[in-house]
Amino acid sequence: MPQVPVVEGFFDPSLPALLGTRCMDCATVFFPAERSWCRNPRCASNTFDEITLSTTGTIWSFTDAQYAPPAPYVAADPYEPFAIVAVELAEEGIVVLGHAAHGTTVADLAVGAAVELVVETLYTDADGDKLVWRWRPVKEA
After folding, report:
1. Is the pLDDT of residue 1 over 80?
2. Whole-model pTM?
């Protein structure tokens, strides 16, 4: 059965890594990738380098989703609450939202804790597994 990202172009499941862009004039980093104009108000550039973003970071904030998000989100039936994590990427310093890895609850999370990017199945339909990136706490060695 095929495995494809839920949203094409946001991440590469084979690495796994998020995909973004960096403005060639001011070096501002964007996720998702920007291709039209630099959103930095002090820059008028429209040229970008495609980049692969950090796969690690620290928790900036987190919460849980006790109620199913509205469409087009595809929720499990019955709905299963999940944790949402805002992660400051290690190299770029930007904050990216994502689900916590399967089995991770808010009790497992702490602001400032290290996390790593993983790819997991969000849902399966007739076309195959729909993949998303998620954040998993890094176990101390």
Report:
1. no
2. 0.90
